[in-house]
């Protein structure tokens, strides 16, 4: 029995030696074969005969050795040399995707892929590739390329006589003296047929036609009517709309139930608050008519839609100066003028403020983040702010540099990837191609 065990043990050791020798020889032969294929392919590529080098490199790329990345580099060069022939564009892109999907993918492959997509005007693919690479590698080089290309825009074909600011992905637009609603890219949703129209929110807009005030849905169906003798109304949000009845402003809901509280004026609700005027002074009320900011100021700074408040941050006019109040408390220095914070949830929610005749930007703690240097400005939205320079408007990023050149007579803030701008043709819409393709921005 001992003899048999010794024989079996010896046989096992011999088998292990044979397996080790076979594996070693096989690994060596794999490397040798890969190098031989590369050498054969090089003779063809040196002569510009790429079509014959391709199958050799594809076979070599099938082996997993330390030389495989080098093989893939050469194979991509061959694909690029044959890119104008059918199928090779897809082969090149597939190899890039394979490399990017590896757990240890280097930032350089994302850089190569993004520059390739930019070269063929595939902007959405380029930006999505950059975002994936930044997420995977954290590369500053990729962030730099992304920032340099994320502001590529397209101008829409729709032209209007007048527009409001974009709100909740829709915008009030005017054509031939009548108002309707378009989406954020300018495509008409509700036809321009009304004397007045509010912002579209909660599935409805409030309109005025032939002296009647009523609510419509997105299909332009009448869904409710105001029976009170109101002269006009403000903008609709949070199921609240201000209406002027006689000499006083009241608040109504979307079904036109009128509240009891009367004011000299009520603005549009945003973030649960609205500017209101009582006894000749301005303050800010909440949904329950409680005063967040007591009515003791000359004015509350509002945007063109009538919004004034974001996260408890409000600008008030006190004498000749404008002050920032946060949750009712004065914060930071006084300014000559200001625009309300945009309501953006991003970290770059900076408000435009004026001092000494020039406009700059502050954060919600009243820290100056962009110095006073512009002729006019709107607060930031989606990482961009409209600013005026030498009588024309363009857009800056949070570092204060122009990323969309000042080419427009007027401009409004970005929302949902688009912004209205006034051109020689009228009001048109510019859209970031990144959003047009259906993807949101990395830092928005």
Outline of this structure?
By secondary structure, the protein is an alpha+beta fold. The chain is built from eight helices and 31 strands. It has helices at 2-46, 50-61, 68-81, 88-100, 107-119, 123-137, 140-149, 433-436; strands at residues 153-155, 162-163, 170-175, 178-183, 188-194, 196-197, 205-209, 212-216, 222-225, 230-233, 241-245, 248-252, 265-266, 273-278, 281-286, 291-297, 299-300, 313-318, 321-326, 329-335, 337-338, 351-355, 358-362, 368-374, 376-377, 385-389, 392-396, 402-408, 410-411, 418-423, 426-432.
Radius of gyration: 32 Å
Count of strand segments: 31
In percent terms, what proportion of residues is strand?
A: 25-35%
Profile the largest sheet.
Answer: 4 strands, antiparallel
Shape-level CATH architecture of the largest domain: 7 Propeller
Classify the secondary structure makeup into a structural class.
Answer: alpha+beta
CATH superfamily of the largest domain: YVTN repeat-like/Quinoprotein amine dehydrogenase
The top-level CATH class of the largest domain is Mainly Beta
CATH topology of the largest domain: Methylamine Dehydrogenase, Chain H
Low-pLDDT stretches are 1-23
């Amino acid at each position: 029995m001992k003899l048999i065990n010794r024989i079996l043990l010896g046989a096992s050791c011999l088998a292990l030696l044979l397996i080790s020798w076979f594996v070693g020889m096989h690994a060596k032969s794999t490397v040798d074969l890969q190098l031989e294929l590369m050498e054969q392919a090089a003779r063809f590529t040196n002569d510009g005969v790429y079509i014959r080098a391709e199958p050799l490199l594809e076979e070599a790329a099938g082996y997993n050795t330390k030389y495989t990345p080098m093989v893939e580099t050469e194979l991509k060069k061959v694909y690029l040399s044959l890119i104008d022939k059918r199928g090779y564009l897809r082969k090149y892109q597939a190899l890039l995707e394979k490399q990017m999907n590896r757990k240890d993918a280097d930032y350089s492959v994302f850089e190569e892929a993004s520059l390739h997509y930019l070269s063929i005007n595939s902007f959405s693919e380029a930006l999505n590739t950059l975002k994936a690479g930044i997420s995977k590698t954290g590369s500053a080089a990729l962030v730099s390329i992304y920032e340099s290309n994320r502001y590529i825009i397209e101008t829409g074909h729709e032209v209007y006589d007048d527009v409001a600011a974009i709100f909740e992905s829709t915008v009030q637009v005017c054509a031939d003296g009548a108002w309707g609603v378009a989406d954020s890219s300018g495509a008409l949703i509700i036809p321009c047929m009304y004397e007045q129209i509010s912002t579209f929110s909660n599935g409805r807009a409030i309109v005025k036609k032939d002296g009647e005030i009523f609510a419509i849905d997105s299909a332009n169906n009448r869904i409710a009517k105001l029976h009170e003798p109101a002269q006009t109304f403000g903008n609709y949000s949070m199921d609240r709309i201000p209406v002027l009845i006689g000499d006083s402003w009241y608040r109504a809901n979307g079904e036109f139930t009128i509240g009891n509280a009367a004011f000299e004026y009520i603005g549009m609700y945003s973030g649960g608050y609205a500017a209101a005027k009582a006894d000749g002074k301005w303050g800010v009320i909440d949904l329950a008519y409680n005063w967040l900011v007591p009515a003791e100021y000359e004015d509350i700074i509002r945007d063109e839609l009538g919004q004034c408040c974001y996260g408890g941050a409000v600008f008030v006019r006190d004498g000749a100066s404008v002050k920032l109040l946060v949750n009712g408390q004065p914060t930071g220095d006084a300014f000559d003028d200001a625009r309300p914070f945009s309501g953006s949830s991003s970290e770059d929610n900076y408000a435009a403020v004026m001092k000494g005749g020039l406009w700059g930007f502050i954060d919600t703690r009243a820290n100056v983040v962009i110095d006073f240097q512009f002729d006019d400005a709107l607060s930031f939205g989606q990482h961009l702010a409209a600013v005026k320079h030498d009588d024309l408007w363009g857009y800056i990023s949070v570092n204060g540099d122009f990323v969309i050149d000042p080419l427009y007579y007027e401009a409004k803030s970005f929302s949902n990837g688009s912004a209205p701008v006034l051109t020689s043709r009228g009001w048109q819409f510019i859209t970031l191609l990144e959003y047009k393709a259906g993807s949101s921005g990395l830092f928005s």
